[in-house]
Amino acid sequence: MPKEKQLQQLLQIEEKLRKLIARYTEVQQQLRRAQEEIRFLEGLVEEKEQQIKNFKNQENIVKIVDTIAGNAANSTELKLKLNEYIREIDKCIAYLQD
User: Fold this and answer.
1) Are 85 and 65 in contact (CB under 8 A)?
2) What would the pLDDT profile of 61-75 be if each residue is shown by its tens digit?
3) Top-confidence range, 8-12, 64-68, 84-88
4) Element (DSSP H or E) covering residue 69
5) Handedness of CA 12, 18, 22, 27 (dihedral sign)
6) If residue 27 lies in a helix (H) or strand (E), which one and from where to where?
7) Are 85 and 58 in contact (CB under 8 A)?
8) Residue 61's closest CA among 42, 37, 85?
9) pTM value?
10) What value does the CA radius of gyration of the chain take, rounded to a whole number of Å?
11) Contact at 8 Å (CB) between 78 and 68?
């Protein structure tokens, strides 16, 4: 009789171990999905920060142009030229970062 009881206990332990392994595998998959989502969200945050930076640059350009240029014709031309310079600088920075 004790052998049957031991066998039953071993089967119970085996079943619990299978459940534990299944749960472990499930948690590992959830962790991988969470890590992928974190990487995706970090990329979005970086993209949004770059957009904010660009908007701030544009706002600063407008302020500078308004201060420097006296009339509307000079203002528009100056804005376009400054935007062109900033795009070129941004390209250079991106090139240097790679």
Assistant:
1) no
2) 777 766 766 666 667
3) 8-12
4) none
5) positive
6) helix 2-68
7) no
8) 85
9) 0.53
10) 31
11) yes
